[in-house]
Amino acid sequence: MDSLFDTQAAKHRAKVAPLAVRMRPRTLDEFVGQDHILGSDSYLRRMIEADALTSLILFGPAGTGKTTLARIIAANTAAYFEEVSAVTGSVKDLREAIKRAGDRLALQEQRTILFIDEIHRFSKSQQDALLHAVEDRIVVLVGATTENPYFEVNSPLVSRSRVLELRALSDEDVAELLRRTLSDKRGLDDKVIVDDDALDALALTAGGDARVALTSLELAAQLAQHSKESSAARGDQDSPDDTTCNEARFKPEVRITLQLVQDVMPSRMLPYDKSGDMHYDVISAFVKSMRGSDPDAALYWLARMLHGGEDPKFIARRILIFASEDIGNADPQALLIAEAAFRSAEIIGLPECQFNLSQATIYMALAPKNNASCMGIVNALAEVEKGKARPVPSHLRDRTRPGSEEYGPYLYPHVYPNNWVQQRYLPEGLHRGDFYTPGKVGWEKRAQDRLDEIISQQSNEDSS
Fold first, then answer.
1. Helix, strand, or coil here: 223?
2. Which of 83, 293, 320, 379 keeps 20 to 30 A from 19, CA to CA?
3. Dihedral class, residue 121 (left if φ above 0, else alpha if ψ from -120 to 50, else beta)
4. Global confidence as pTM
């Protein structure tokens, strides 16, 4: 039982706690967003309400409610709830927590829910220490992580848990949370007025992160209060009538304007993790937008990466790959432009190289597309890896070794008309067109014309 001192200390901590902590949802009904996993008939909601939870791994961006959800589970379960820090915890701490859970289960028949925040920070040996306890249901694991657990958490531990993804909150979700905070007694208790455009800006600039939104609101409210107090101290207030004075005396509201929000957070904080899922999702969208010949979409995803602090050389490398993989010889100039963009990223760097990347991105998006070069080597490699071991035709072999005079004659194309002569270059069993099929746009169309010309010459020689 907590002492009077503990209760008082808790009250004092709550009084100075950040707004985001004070407004942490206490029940599932207070939880904002994540309807795809917490809807009225969802698996997770039913398991929490029935107190029949199985091991879970929650992953998603910061500020989406992973830790909050764990604390709601703690408040709605008869099981013992224990938390181990993934930052400061050790294998010894885990083993001690598992031993206590085992004793609790054996002596009191009480389950233990073990919550591990940022579980991906645990080493492999620490994660391995959980395996048997999770498998034998000595503990019910609730792990939370901002990283993809399929890459960052041991596969055996993932297979013993249900993985649930929490998504970034929508701007509407964040706005709802802000409005609730303005009126809630734990929040600003109707003592702060926020202009509509300021509320929209707070929701927008949070980038789907509830913690960022509430922190910005708190800071804006503090600045508004300070501005009002400073104005009153200077005597700058207009001379109001008696009614206004009385209203102000009994309802000391402060006002948050759009300018205040812009002072607190001048730019939108979109989530972008240079080593996580968002990194791969955005670069994937960037490449697919160029492939789909949409320069506006490609520029948007380029801007997302630059805004998130992505290495410009990483972006330029992907453009360089794209020039051959998706454009190829439909426009050979694309490779030169991509190479120039990469050099600019190396030599010039940000911020100026963003113009070079933009130019290259637009060129790639609008260039004719053909993956014949890409598929040519893919098909040839597949034959090399899975086909027969085919010898080099004797007339194509090196002539400097002893016995080469017995090889078949090699016909030198440059001494023949049009610098071409009919001669077999593929190993036996393979034929022209097995790997490379030209496209129908750009230089690739010219390549097809040249192939048709060669085939025509070959046919003429065969008939003569």
1. helix
2. 83
3. alpha
4. 0.58
Superfamily covering domain 34-165: P-loop containing nucleotide triphosphate hydrolases (3.40.50.300)
Strands 254-256 and 112-117: unpaired
Residues 26/72, Cβ–Cβ less than 8 Å:
yes
Percentages (nearest 5) of helix, strand, coil residues in the chain: 60, 5, 35
Domain spans, the chain: 34-165, 171-232+250-264, 277-366, 395-463
> Among the CATH numbers 3.40.430.10, 3.40.50.1010, 1.10.8.60, 1.10.1740.10, which is that of 171-232+250-264?
1.10.8.60
Mean pLDDT calculated for residue range 93-108 = 92
> How far is C-alpha 411 from the geometric centre of its chain's CA atoms?
56
Handedness of CA 128, 130, 133, 135 (dihedral sign): negative
What secondary structure, in 3-state letters, does 145-164 show? ECCCHHHHCCHHHHHCCEEE
Evaluate the CA torsion angle 143, 145, 148, 154 in order and state its sign: negative
- What CATH number was assigned to the domain covering residues 395-463? 1.10.3710
Give the torsion sign (CA, 26, 31, 37, 38): positive
Element (H, E) at 254: strand 254-256
Gap between the Cα atoms of 365 and 299, Å rounded: 10
Q: What is the pLDDT of residues 307-361, one digit of tens each?
A: 878 889 999 999 999 999 999 988 999 999 999 999 999 999 888 999 999 999 9
Domain 277-366 - what CATH class? Answer: mainly alpha
How confident is the model over 115-134, as pLDDT tens digits?
A: 998 898 888 888 888 999 99
